[in-house]
Design goal:
Layout lengths: L4 E5 L2 E5 L11 E2 L8 H17 L6 H16 L6 E5 H13 L6 E2 L2 E2 L14 H12 L7 H6 L3 H14 L7 E2 L2 E2 L4 E3 L5 E4 L3 H7 L1 H18 L4 H4 L5 H6 L3 H15 L16 E4 L14 E4 L1 H7 L3 E2 L1 H13 L1 H11 L5 H17 L4 E4 L2 E3 L11
Parallel strand pairs: 13-14
Antiparallel strand pairs: 1-2, 3-4, 4-10, 5-6, 7-8, 9-10, 11-12, 14-15
Helix pairs in contact: 1-8, 2-3, 2-7, 2-8, 3-6, 4-6, 11-14
């Protein structure tokens, strides 16, 4: 998909690089469209390692900010040397989403924290967590999901508070190492409401997204474990990583298995055989590549097919089938996601698919072709997303 002009994706138009009537700057600035060099990529990763290893951390905000930038680069960036303009409001929205799960009382492997919400900074609880805890407490029972929270009247003021928090603290401290400010990620954008990812940064973040996320989450986990306020519960419980960054597969299956079975006419999405009663909900773009429960990214499969696909992408026939499935059942998936309390974002699901398959082609990654067969992508996969 081109990074300038307009592209049509599964019946939706994505306008890129145009200035709106309101004067909002384009997401891309007109710079070099060639790809960053391998040497640039090495320097970029070295700088990421520097801020994680040498930076000063009194809270987990910087880890969340780095992960947020990765996700926004996947959703809105491309694989060129272009700069990318990101509204701070949108970063704040992603920031709140990342912390939503962590604002719940900690519980893992049957061990309850008796209402303890894990601390995310030294001293008093992080203000981002406190605000999310307040919102969670105001929501009732089954409606206390991220999707319901995002649709509530309280979400916009919350994002506004997160925006103020970002501007006052992590946004301008992430790139500081010791007494040195290494501006390799972004610069302040037009006015005070945007930042501009520097040339090639969106590409680097997309290209090395799994590695950067893993580095950030590992350090995030280490920080939470180190806080003495968390020791009373973490000293006797395991499963912290799953709690902070995971997804409850059992809960997801209860919500979406029946409607997905109906949409797929009782057939496995992959082998087309009749589904058993214990079918598995599968993230078409694997959770390990993009850890969000998006309604348009969910399919139902045999346990054996799900296991063989594992964390791999499906081959081009499966991509073609998914494109048709999303197109044919767009309104059904919207209803499914809304009723299940999931995030519903078709355009983002397609953008993530394009990023995932593009990355797999570049690194010559293995894809699952069905059964016990594995192979690699041809250059024709992009035509399936047109």
């Amino acid at each position: 998909m081109g990074a300038s002009g307009q592209s049509r994706v599964l019946g939706q138009e994505l306008s890129v690089g145009k200035v709106s009537d309101s004067g909002t700057p384009p997401p891309y600035l007109p710079t070099d469209t060639s790809r960053p060099s391998p040497a640039d990529q090495i320097r970029f990763i070295a700088n990421v390692e520097r801020i994680l290893a040498e930076g000063s951390f009194v809270a987990t905000y910087k880890y969340a900010l780095l992960v947020a930038l990765v996700e926004l680069a996947i959703e809105r960036g491309d694989d060129s040397n272009r700069e990318l303009v990101l509204p701070i409001h949108d970063i704040a929205d992603k920031f709140a989403e990342l912390y939503w799960r962590q604002a719940a009382p900690y519980e893992a492997d049957g061990v309850s924290s008796r209402g303890l919400v894990l601390h995310q900074n030294q001293g008093r609880q992080a203000s981002a967590i406190s605000r999310l805890v307040k919102l969670r407490n105001e929501m009732q029972g089954s409606r206390s999901t991220l999707a319901h929270a995002r649709r509530s009247a309280d979400w916009s003021p919350l994002v506004g508070q997160m925006r103020s928090l970002l501007k006052s603290m992590p946004l301008w401290r992430l790139q500081r190492v010791g007494h040195e400010d290494i501006r390799f990620l972004y610069e302040p954008g037009p006015g005070s409401d945007y930042i501009t990812l520097l040339p090639g940064v969106a590409c680097h973040l997309r290209e090395r997204a799994p590695l950067i996320r893993r580095l950030a989450e590992t350090e995030w986990l280490r920080f939470v474990l180190s806080l003495k306020q968390n020791q009373p519960v973490l000293g006797r419980a395991v499963g912290l990583s799953e709690f902070l960054f995971g997804s409850s597969r059992a809960a997801l299956s209860l919500k979406v298995s029946k409607p997905l079975r109906e949409l797929q006419s009782g057939q496995c999405f992959y082998c087309q055989g009749t589904l058993s009663a214990t079918a598995a909900v599968d993230h078409f773009i694997p959770w390990s590549r993009y850890p969000r429960d998006l309604a348009h990214n969910l399919v139902l499969a045999h346990g054996a097919c799900n296991s063989r696909k594992n964390d791999l992408l499906g081959g081009e026939p499966y991509l073609e089938r998914w494109v048709k499935f999303v197109s044919d059942h767009d309104s059904d998936l919207l209803q499914l996601g809304t009723e299940a309390g999931l995030l519903v974002d078709r355009a983002t699901s397609v953008a993530v698919a394009e990023w995932s398959y593009g990355h797999a082609e570049r690194v010559h990654a293995e894809v699952w072709l069905g059964g016990k067969d594995y192979g690699h992508l041809s250059r024709n996969w992009r035509e399936l997303l047109r």
